[in-house]
Every structure is written in C-alpha cells, then in structure tokens.
Amino acid sequence: MTRQASLARQRRAFLTWCLAPALAVLAVVTLAPMTYLVVTSLTPLNLTNPMTAWNFHQPLLNYRLLLSDQRFLNSLWVQAKLSFWTVGLQMLIGIGFALMLNLRTSLLQALRTVFLVPMVLPPIVVAIIWKVLYTPDISPAYWLFKAMGLNVPALITDPNWALPAIIAADTWEWFPLTMLMVLAGLQTVPEELLDAARVDGANSWQVTVSVLLPYIRGTLMVAGLFRLVDSIKAFPLIYLLTDGGPGSVTEVTNYYAFEQAFNFSYLGFSSAITVVLVAASLAMSWVLVRMTGWGAAE
Amino acid sequence: MRKNRAIIHALAIGLAILVLAPFLWLLRMSFETNAEIFAFPPHLWFTPTFDNYAALWQGDFRNSFLNSAVVTVASTGLSMLVGVPAAYALARMRSRSDALSLWIIASRLAPPPAFAIPYFLAYRSLHLLDTRFGLVVIYLTFNISLVIWLMRSFFENAPRALEEAAWIDGAGFWRSLLSVVLPTAAPGLAATAILCFVFSWNDFFFALILTRSNAMTAPVAVVNFMNYAGWEWGRIAAGGTMVMLPVLLFSLAVRRYLINGLTAGAVKG
Description:
The complex is a heterodimer.
Chain A: H1 3-40, H2 61-68, H3 70-101, H4 106-120, H5 123-133, H6 140-147, H7 162-186, H8 191-199, H9 204-215, H10 217-231, H11 236-241, H12 253-262, H13 267-292
Chain B: H1 2-29, H2 34-38, H3 51-58, H4 61-92, H5 98-109, H6 113-126, H7 132-157, H8 161-168, H9 173-184, H10 186-202, H11 205-210, H12 218-224, H13 233-253, H14 255-262
C-alpha cells in the first residue's frame, strides 16, 4: 500500500471519530426522546392514574379522539390564522424595510442595527413589553388613545381583538429576521442587471417589482417557509398575554398540547397532538432542506 | 434625488423610534417607583431609582440569575466540545446524507412539547426535575445542531492547504486540528459559542416545565413576579431588563453571524 493511500484511510478513520460522539449524543438527547414521545402517544398516560402507563390496549385511541375533538380542530384553525397573518405581515414589512435599508447610506447602515433589537430580545422579555403595552392602567399607548379621545377596549381580554393583538406583537418581534434575510438576498443581485433595466427606462418601482424581487424569489421562499415552521412554536407571547383565551380564541395547537400535558396531566393525549405537530414541522423542514441544498454535497 | 433621500431618512428615523419605543418604555419602567408607573398621565421627567434592582438582588432572583448563567455556560461548553469536531468531519467528508441534515435541522425546528413531554417523564423517574443538570442536557437538543450547522460552513470556507501541509510534516490529525484548523476558525468559534449562549439563556418553555424552585432560571423567575397579588411592575421591568441585557450585548456583538445562526445557515448574511 502506498503512503498516500494509507494516509487517506487514516484520515477517514479520524473523521469518523470526530463525528461519532456527536451522533451518539444526538441519538440520546433527540432520537430517544422523540421515540418515547411516539410510544407515549399510543397510551392513555395520565399522571394521576398509574394504570395508564405502558397501556397499549387501544394504541390509536388518542388519534381517533383528536379527529372529533372540537378544541383541537379549533386550535388548528387558530394556528392557521396566526401563521397566515404573522408570516404575511413579516414578509411585507421585512421586504419594505430591506428595500429601504438597501440604499446603504451611512445613516441607514447605523439604523440597521437598531431595527434588529426586537429580534434579539429574549422572547419572554418581548412578552413582558407587550403585556405592559396592552395593560390599560400603565400603558403609554392607552394614554395616547385617551388623549386623542379614542376609547380602545382592553385588547387582550376582548375576544375580537386578542388574536390581532398577538399577531401585532409577534410581527414586531420577528420582522427583523425576514428583513435581514431579504437584505442578504438583495446584496447578491448583480449591479449590471439593475443598470440594464434602468437603461431600458424602468423607474425605480419597476426595477424593484420586475427585477429585484423576482431575482431573490428563492430567498423570499426560504424566509417565508422558515417563519412558517417557527410560527408553530409560538409560546411565550400567548402564555403571558392571553393564556390561550379569552375562551380559546388564541389557543394554538402548540399551546393546547402544553395545557393538556402540564395543566391537565393528559400526557398520552398531549403526545398525540405533539406528534401531529412534529409531522407538520418535519414535512416543512424537509422542503427547506431540499430548497436550500443543506443536504447536498457541493 | 437628494429630496428623495431626505424623505427616506426621515421615514427611517421615524420607524426606528417607533420600533424601539416599546423596548425603551420597559427600560424606563425599571427605574420608576410603582407610584410613578401608575401616574396618569405619565410624567415626562422623573427621578430614576435603583430600588427595583436592589430589591431583586436581595431576593431569590439572584439565585435564578446564577442558575441561568451556570446552565447556559455548561450547555454551551458541552455543545462546542461535541459539535465542533463533528462539524469539521462533515465539512471534510465527501458524501453527505439528506437524512442526517433533516435530523439535525428538525431537532432545531421541532415544537417544544416534542422534547418537553418525554424529558419531563424521564426526569420524573430519574429524579432530574428541578436540577441544573437536567436543563443542561435538554439544551443540548438545539445547541449541538446549531454548532454543527454554523461551524460546518466556517470549516468549508477555510483553506485546506495548511492542514494538509501539517499532515505531510507528520503532525497527526488531532494535532493539526487543534493547532492549525481551530486557530484559523477562532472568529467562527466565538460567534457560535455566543449564539449557543443566547439561545440557552432565552429559553423559557423548558425551564418552565422542568424546574420548580432550586434550578429555576431568570426568565421563569421574572414571570413568577406576575403571579403574586399586586403586580409589581417595577420589579418585573427590572428583572426583564436584567434578563435581556447580556443577550442584547452579545447578539449585537455577533450581528454579522446572527442571521446565519437564526436560520441555521439557510441564508448567509
């Protein structure tokens, strides 16, 4: 065997040793719990009743119950509304802000950092900030409304306004992310392409709509899909602002799973809800992996 | 053209103030007395007080803050230790599987109850509920994936000539990884560690479910102020400010890598 071939073989062995511990740890901390979750979802596990553990008499019962559970079906609808509006608004505002910042004057460069603040705050602090804003006694916004003679109801306790209130807070928190992603995309647009359009007599609006945005449509898709997967995880805002209410108008599926498991102790049933959520987020992650070429060797 | 620019600048400044206002208001509240907070209409000027912070630091909050720091640092350290060599291996291997990528990305994007439920059940029988160790382990679920994704792209972009030269000189693979590859990746290592710190520090859901009192972290402790009668807004604001301060400084320090970290490398900023 030549020295080179033996070096290559040793190198492969070395790389395997680098990778193996991480895979082993990941298997223990992610794969095993995920399997346990699926197993639990096949039992009626309820912590107040020890007989329910490891009871596989009716493995699919939880899933059958889900199909006829009005509260679960409602939570899917609430989730759909929340995802639609937050992702939509974050994309629109993100694109708008990115186009503005893309002019790249020194003032705009400086402001770019300012716009990042909502996204880098801990989510629970974001929730506290909006709790303050939505509490009429202490909110500067309510003081302004009053000064202008407007009579605004307490938004987070009003069935018609609770969900829009959550949507507003979530949009504030995450538009910086779509803004940054779009901005990164805009910086890949070749200058010649824009010059060519301008020579053809396109004004800046036309350049934006028919050259810039189509050129970065891949980035836009990834940004939207990414926020969509993440919107399933919404928790601190709902926990702190509305607790899923009033009634269940802000009870998204993730929140419903949390309540079933940790308020009512129905861990088996909650596991089934969670399995449905995991399946949805896996499917979307798969699309993301394909779209971004994460998996492919270059 | 000049006029357009002026309009856009004015608009941008206006929007910046609007975006920052809610955040600044919380900061202001943390220096107010409760009477000042409920003053209506709010006073424009007031005498700032550090009473809220002092009260926090004399109470249980100090312990929660310490818990957050210990758990976050430990989980970040472990994830780097395990994740960095793996990222290097993935960057240097020729073949790569879609399944592995999906596994890593999905564990970062999974809805929180997916891990909270099995960990809660397992910790109950292992007596790991309300321990710092328990939190360190569950934070590995997202931190290791993050390290692998971020460091993989750093290693891919690093030149290979140096490490190959080191092998030819007979340096051995471990030696060349430690003394040639890692030093050149130092900025990437720092950014990655900071992002792990931020994500662990920010966690609310897992700490809410897996801790009660001993291992309670700062984000959960702040929310607990809300459950007592007579909402202590000043203290809540001060606690919130203390929770966000380290994260804010760290994130802005690595803002160049932020987007990469938040999207697991889907978009390079």
